[in-house]
Amino acid sequence: MSEHKPDELRGHVYDGIEEYDNKLPNWWLFILYGSIVFAVGYWLVFHTFSIVDLPRARYDKEMVAASEVQLARLAKTGLTDESLALMATIPAQVEEGRQLYATYCVVCHADRGQGLVGPNLTDGFWIHGGRPLDIHRVVTDGVLSKGMAAWGRQLGPTRVQKVVAYVLTLKGTEVPGKAPEGLPETAAPPAAAAAPPTTVPAAAGAAGSG
Ligand code: HEC
Predict the structure, then answer these.
(1) Contact residues of ligand 1, CB 6 A cut-off
(2) Ligand 1 centre from 151 Cα, in Å?
(3) Per-residue pLDDT, 205
(4) 125-126/183-184 β-pairing
(5) Long-range contacts of 139-147 (CB under 8 A, 24+ apart)
(6) Contacts for 115 with CB less than 8 Å, ≥ 6 apart
(7) Please, what are the domains in the chain?
(8) Which residue has the CA at smallest separation from atom 14 of ligand 1?
(9) How far apart are CA 135 and CA 168, in angstroms?
């Protein structure tokens, strides 16, 4: 019944099953050995000697480069609330902003933005306005009479934008700390909607403040 002509049978039988001793096709062997060689090469190039970045690292670099381009374009067209808010969604920008914040701002605004000498940046109250451009203006020009430096001079425009992007990610996180100062922001802050649902008691900051 079988139209396949048995070339040669191997000399064993298991449970009544016999096996032909056919040579594997060359194209099949080529793929097998080829993939073994490729795997060894890949391992050496990517993991052992790190000659080429892993896809993840390359992706991160591309994201940084792309956001730098975006930043340069924004700097030309002028900043808007939207462009700053957009920047606050780019992880690479926010990460640089976080580092700048940790270096220059943390002494007065505390590690999570809850405020020390400077006001709480996480609540819904702002002395100088809570819109992205308001925050950008305060950080750039400072409030010299109150001890807030004009960071525009010291950091330059690009780094100010990054640190503002980071401040926008703190906004609305409602970390209990320094009591609210200034006026409540009338419009719901956009960052609050995007923030993970934390259930910090809202009254914590206000309690006992006169
Ligand atoms: C030496 C202390 C100090 C440092 C450092 C400092 N700030 Fe401030 N910051 C203040 C004070 C004080 C105020 C409140 C000014 C006022 O009362 O008008 C303030 C206000 C602000 C405001 C406005 C808050 C509001 O309610 O309107 C923002 C935003 C801000 N700072 C961001 C930053 C950022 C970003 C940095 C780092 C680049 C920074 N600050 C570094 C002391 C500081």
Answers:
(1) 104-105, 107-109, 117-119, 121, 126-128, 135, 138-139, 143, 146-148, 151, 163, 167, 181-182
(2) 10
(3) 42
(4) antiparallel
(5) 139/163, 139/164, 139/167, 147/108, 147/117, 147/118
(6) 109, 121, 177, 178
(7) 1-52 (no CATH), 55-194 (1.10.760.10)
(8) 118
(9) 8
Q: Which helix (H) or strand (E) holds 125?
A: strand 125-126
Tokens 């330059």 belong to residue: 156
Closest residue by Cα to atom 37, ligand 1, is: 105
Centre of ligand 1 from the C-alpha of residue 169, in Å: 16
**200: pLDDT strictly greater than 90:** no
Contact present, 205 and 146 (Cβ < 8 Å):
no
Amino acid identity of 125?
F
Which strand (E) or helix (H) includes residue 184? strand 183-184
119 is written with which tokens?
Answer: 């006001």
Which tens digit of pLDDT belongs to each residue from 136-165?
A: 999 999 999 999 999 999 999 889 999 999
Pairwise CA distance, residues 139 & 137, whole Å: 5
